[in-house]
Amino acid sequence: MKLSKILSIVLATLSVGVSSRPTTLSNDVQQVPADIRDEPFKVPVDIEKRAGHEETERFKNTQKYLGKQKLQLGKTYSFQVTWTQGAAGSTTKTTSPIEREMKKTQQGYGFDHTGIVVGEVVKVPVGQKYELDFKGDLYHLRAKLEGSGQKAWYKTWVESIPWDPKPTPKTVTALHLQEVSGKWEEKAVHANTAASEVSTKNGNRWQGKRNDCAEYVKAFEKAL
Questions:
Q1: What is the pTM of this model?
Q2: Quick one: signal sequence residues (predicted)?
Q3: Is 136 in contact with 66 (CB distance < 8 Å)?
């Protein structure tokens, strides 16, 4: 067989081999899912928090008392509240020794009464929109004058009521804003139980700087 014919056969064989090889994409090309356009667009939570919204009167009053300390949706907080009418202690009588001690204690603190609030910022549906609200409870140590004259004394007990501030002629201030993690309602109950010992261990008899509303709040914050 002539050399030229042999070369022709070899070239023909190589041509068939190349054309029959399947064409593939490079491994560097990543496949894009065909249904990616169907993936829902997820809005970051913080965008929702910054979106415009209405506010309940309770939320507005709470935020007003807190001043520059801002409440945020979905978070749980505790804060101390103080009430004062005029100058601290100015409305407390001085008829008995215990009343005079009460007045002096109030003047020393710079307020008439204090308590602590624990709660969370929630959304309240209103038609097609919603309002921001602060749902929480107020815990405080109360005192009631018993007897008269030299034998007068203040009986103390702890009270918890839903937090719902209303317009008042008193000066109301909220301070010590702190975030609370976990189940705030259970934590508040536990803290209240612990702080109640301020009263019970003193025979439920008021005593300035020992069994009073401010000492109760301090014990509550420590146990929360």
A1: 0.76
A2: 1-20
A3: no
